[in-house]
Specification:
The structure is a homodimer. With about 230 residues, chain A is an alpha+beta fold. Chain A has helices at about 1-5, 10-20, 100-110, 115-135, 140-160, 175-180, 185-195, 210-220, and strands at about 25-30, 35, 45-50, 50-55, 65-70, 75, 90, 95-100, 165-170, 200-205, 205-210. At the A-B interface, helix 3 and helix 4 of A face helix 3 and helix 4 of B.
Chain lengths: ~230, ~230
DNA sequence: CGTTATATTGAAAGCAGTCAATAGTCGTGG
DNA sequence: CCACGACTATTGACTGCTTTCAATATAACG
């Protein structure tokens, strides 16, 4: 169980101790909340299956998508400092999560150095991942943001042993647009365009990446350079 | 010494142990590097005085500003996971830093629960701070990004006991523009505009915030709503 | 099977980027 | 101490990407 929730190189004894912490797991129906902004922070949550979106509300009531969590990823790391969750976490589909009581995890990690290391590593990764996001937004045009988003999902699925080229977009176009700081219409237009030039194929929420190199090229050229990989049409 | 570098509620004995780790401090001249992308990760660095900018290079050689570090802030947290620094850290002025050997800090934090907690807290804060940045970029227009940037600096200086309304912009306009994903010209134009409407006053790199409420209003309205606080001119 | 939410596509407007020219600042060496 | 050159900052004009508004089309849900 612990292996599934918090994969980390521990010996059998240590693993048992961790297991005793992570007993509960819950099934969350689509649209249900795991936690809400301001709730007092008690647990980290690991996704065993399904997916979750996290968003905050601005002072004027607008939604701001902050994260999508996929299988194997940990939610709630940003809440440690303030002891309150900063976002609303909602299941995008029926989702199974592990509940990890943080206080006990903290205690245990004092006794198991490898566990402490893994926690530091996890948090550091999260910082890096947020920094990368910062790098895309604002500095990249709409097409690049979307290409980077698709590649990011592809990598994350691939890491967990799933196909890097075919996967399910569990979030809506509206959510994607919000996450990338674009209008829904722009996301839709660009998906259509990429589909036309055979870089990707889309059937509703199911996506196939046909030309991975092309996506990489799109991401890596400057904001307004334009030598895309479209040697296709006509 | 430790108090200055890693403020945390420890007793005298614990503080001594921490002190013994954090012996060295270095003076870095303006323009000098503290670390570079790819250097192997050995230390965290805390700023005792001065300021530092951190940037990465894109695949096509463009600079991407990722962070500004001010007095009291910790650099290098993103390097823990990969054991390599992810960015280039350069002093913006003559800067004094504490060197904190991370491996030893990790060891010590196994023995001092309060220290471990403080480290978790620090990293969690960093995650939150990056998330906030993500929230601005891409979702806010140029004026809002700049207003948010100024308020952010104001808060950070204020937290450390300095004036919230008057401070030195140690980074260049070019750096600010890059950080916010804007063109230098846009930053310059907006600073001029805010200056004209008496929201701020600028003398070269020295800035005074004259109307803090106005800045907050700018940040908090929607991306294209426009009811600014300009009841000033003529 | 109808109703509502989500997605696609088109046309027009606006914000920010680019290009260009000028002004001001900083550091170095005469 | 001043003068030169290089760098940084400011301001203006124009282009273009992305948003907004509007109209369908398609999918999801009870």
């Amino acid at each position: 169980m612990a292996q599934l929730c918090l994969p980390v190189g521990l010996n059998v004894t240590e693993l048992k101790q961790l297991d005793s912490l992570i007993q509960k797991h819950r099934l969350i129906q689509k649209g249900r909340f795991i936690y809400r902004t301001g709730d007092s922070f008690t647990h980290l949550y690991a996704i065993r299956s399904g997916s979750v979106k996290a968003y905050t509300l601005t002072s004027d009531g607008q939604i701001q998508m902050t994260d999508f969590f996929l299988l194997g990823e940990i939610m709630g790391l940003d809440a440690i400092a303030t002891k309150r969750y900063h976002s609303n976490a909602v299941a995008l589909q029926t989702t199974s999560i592990c509940e990890i009581p943080f206080h006990q995890l903290e205690q245990l990690s004092l006794k198991i150095p490898a566990l402490q290391q893994q926690l530091f590593r996890l948090m550091s990764q999260e910082i890096t991942s947020e920094q990368n996001l910062v790098t895309w937004l604002g500095r990249k045009n709409a097409e690049q943001r979307l290409a980077a988003f698709l590649l990011n999902l592809s990598n994350r699925y691939h890491q967990r042993g799933f196909s890097a080229t075919e996967f399910h977009l569990s979030m809506s176009r509206t959510d994607i647009a919000n996450y990338l700081g674009l209008a829904v219409e722009t996301v839709s237009r660009i998906l259509s365009k990429l589909s036309e030039q055979k870089t990707i194929a889309i059937d509703k929420k199911f996506i196939r990446i046909l030309d991975m190199d092309c996506l990489h090229q799109i991401v890596n050229v400057g904001k307004h350079d334009s030598l895309p990989c479209i040697a296709h049409h006509a």
